[in-house]
Amino acid sequence: MKQICFVCQNVDCKSRGSERLLNELSNKVAERSLDVEVKSYLCFGGCEYGPNIVIYPQKNWYAGVKLEDLPEILDSLAGGPAVSRLDTIDPALKEMIYALLDTGVF
Ligand code: FES
Question: pLDDT digit string (tens) for 18-32?
Fold first, then answer.
């Protein structure tokens, strides 16, 4: 399955710069010809910890993402290791959202 990089675009994440993150990720993925789809997402429920980005089906969740974190995230999308320092979300919330994504409705 093609990797999908979901970038939350709801109010809280947007107020912390998620729109710019979405645009930058889209551009860089295209520049590097990565086989990754960058998509907006309505809300992951971790609003106070945003901007939130979830990589699926790998199920990597990156919280509080800043522009300067993007090179590492792009490297992980290119097959590098997950950016574990940004994986700070409560496991219960992660499981809930991953179960939702597993339904294939997005
Ligand atoms: S606003 Fe981004 S997780 Fe809710």
Answer: 999 999 999 999 999
